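Severity: low
Component: inverse-folding endpoint
Summary: output formatting inconsistent between runs
Steps to reproduce: submit the following structure tokens with default settings.
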């Protein structure tokens, strides 16, 4: 099972004490803003490293396409505004 919360005032939550078993956590964030795309930065950094070491035939992934962001910035702003009115 997994539970996800947005990071805003719509989802105030608490966590109960674990008395049996273990709690696993995974911190993630999602952004509709393409300027926060870490894949492109990482691939560029690794590519430069491989070029400097003269390593050929790398299997680095290609950067994500620009259309992977499903919503325009205007839509993202409107979605957020709609959520606040609910």
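Observed output (run 2 of 3):
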């Amino acid at each position: 099972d997994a539970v996800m919360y947005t990071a805003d005032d719509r989802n105030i939550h608490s966590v109960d004490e674990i008395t049996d078993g273990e709690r696993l956590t995974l911190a993630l964030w999602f952004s509709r803003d393409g300027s926060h795309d870490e894949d492109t930065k990482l691939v560029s950094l690794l590519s430069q490293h491989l070029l400097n070491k003269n390593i050929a035939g790398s299997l680095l992934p290609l950067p994500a396409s620009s259309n992977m962001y499903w919503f325009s910035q205007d839509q993202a702003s409107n979605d957020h505004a709609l959520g606040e009115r609910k």
